[in-house]
Write a structure and sequence with these properties.
Elements (H helix, E strand, L loop, with lengths): L14 H13 L1 H4 L3 H4 L4 H10 L2 H5 L10 H13 L4 H18 L5 H10 L5 E4 L15 E3 L2 E10 L6 E7 L11 E7 L5 E5 L9 E9 L3 E4 L4 H37 L1 E2 L2 E2 L4 H29 L5 H25 L10 H14 L4 H7 L9
Parallel strand pairs: 1-4
Antiparallel strand pairs: 2-3, 3-7, 4-5, 5-8, 6-7, 9-10
Helix pairs in contact: 1-6, 6-7, 6-9, 6-10, 7-8, 7-9, 9-10, 9-11, 9-12, 10-11, 11-12, 11-13
Bound molecules: flavin-adenine dinucleotide (FAD).
The site of flavin-adenine dinucleotide (FAD) has 19 residues, from strand 1, strand 3, helix 12 and helix 13.
Length: 380
């Protein structure tokens, strides 16, 4: 059984765009492989700038000129390619830039139009600050508030925050300054506002671009969703983000499995290569089978996303399966590498850390399970 051949999960790919991405990766290996990604000096701004200069950010967000390949397929192609490249962290920053920040401000008018242009050029970026130290998955416990003097509160574990020019903040608007309904609003804040203090968090992966923010009477630059509609806007957005995260997770798992197969095929123990050992062979075969079914589900999720028919349940299923698969495969990769896998130079522990981080971003497993409707019909 060939356990190395994985094609793309993207249902229909744009060959010309693929070639441009491949060319970009080949010409920018210095940037994508630099140790700065793990030392805390992650070159996020430089990566976005080069991608913007190459026209790939704008292209990934738009349909192909003949309309045959939708933008979400092209961005999935980019995320898949980045997840398979030397450093996974670069892909995490790009996914947040394109699939979170840019999508949440798109079509909102006013200053967001010029920000979006800057984002497609790779000159500006926007982070989404939802998670709070005291609330986490429980958004009903959110304490960030919009009041008379501005926004006050604290958010943490926000991707790209230390390099962000703008921050999208989910905040409770009890005084109905943005709308009559009750519930949180989604607000855009200038990261250079005097009421904004950003700090960089030390993390296991994504080193240097995960941040926390304290908001002290920060001004609202734009209302992206008024009081009562902030959560709805986020739930709609999460459909897209979760499917894209599952593209990234399944590409990461494929990379880890390829690595594990190559390594067990070349390590000789007890008179033969490790992969000839029945237990190791079976475990790798099980993960190969699991990955193939995950990839089929993710492909279906992408197809439904392009048709605007993806349900919250389907998006949650894609991400849940992809996260479980990525964690299982990367953990196997670490174990089957033996002591070499414990060394800092080995890619397996890093892939495992990336898989754990991606599992939390956009909703942890149990939160995803809450969004899966066991009664819902899924015509696979
Ligand atoms: C790499 C990475 C990137 C991220 N990027 C962003 C970002 O850009 N913006 C942002 O706002 N946040 C971001 N986050 C934060 C992420 O959204 C949160 O980590 C996630 O929502 C979970 O919150 P928590 O970490 O506080 O865990 P907790 O809410 O404390 O959960 C801990 C565990 O308990 C489980 N759990 C929680 N509630 C329940 C329940 N009711 N029933 C059963 N089990 C439950 C969870 O599934 C989890 O396993 C990121 C996180 C990571 C790791």
């Amino acid at each position: 059984m060939d356990m190395t051949g994985f094609g793309s999960v993207v249902p229909r790919s744009d060959g010309a765009f693929s070639r441009r991405v491949a060319e970009f990766l080949a010409h920018n290996d210095d940037l994508l492989s630099t140790p700065s990604w793990t030392s805390g000096e992650a070159p996020v701004a430089e990566t976005l700038r080069r991608l913007g200069d190459a026209g790939l950010l704008k292209a990934a967000a738009t349909d192909s000129s003949d309309g045959a390949v939708p933008g979400c397929f092209r961005s999935a192609q980019l995320h898949e390619a980045l997840a398979s490249s030397a450093c996974g962290a670069a892909g995490a920053a790009v996914l947040t830039h394109l699939e979170v920040g840019a999508r949440l401000i798109a079509g909102k008018g006013g200053i967001t139009e010029s920000i979006l242009e800057g984002m497609h050029a790779g000159k500006e970026t926007v982070a989404l600050a939802v998670t709070e130290p005291g609330g986490g998955s429980d958004l009903t416990a959110m304490s960030t508030r919009l009041g008379e003097s501005g926004i006050c509160g604290e958010k943490f574990m926000v991707t790209n925050l230390p390099v962000a020019d703008w921050i999208i903040v989910l905040a409770v608007d009890t005084e109905h300054r943005t709308g009559k309904r009750s519930g949180p609003a989604l607000l855009l804040v200038d990261a250079a506002d005097p009421g904004v203090t950003v700090s960089t968090l030390e993390t296991r992966s994504n080193a240097g671009f995960m941040g926390a923010v304290t908001l002290q009477d920060a001004s609202v630059a734009a209302v992206l969703a008024p009081a009562g509609l902030g959560l709805l806007a986020l739930v709609r957005h999460l459909l897209h983000e979760r499917v894209m995260l599952s593209v990234r997770l399944s590409a990461l798992a494929a990379r880890a499995l390829r690595q594990a197969v190559a390594e067990t095929s070349s390590r000789h123990r007890f008179g033969d290569t490790l992969i000839k050992n029945q237990h190791l062979h079976y475990r790798l075969a099980e993960e190969w089978a699991r990955l193939q079914s995950t990839r089929a589900l993710v492909r279906y999720g992408l197809r439904q996303l392009a048709r605007r028919s993806c349900t919250p349940s389907l998006a949650a299923m894609c991400k849940l399966h992809a996260a479980e698969t990525a964690r299982a495969v990367t953990e196997l990769g670490v174990r089957f590498a033996g002591a070499t896998g414990y060394r800092l130079s080995h890619p397996a522990p890093r892939l495992l850390a990336d898989a754990i981080g991606l599992s939390l971003a956009g909703g942890a497993d149990e939160v995803l399970l809450e969004h899966i409707d066991p009664k819902g019909s899924l015509a696979l």
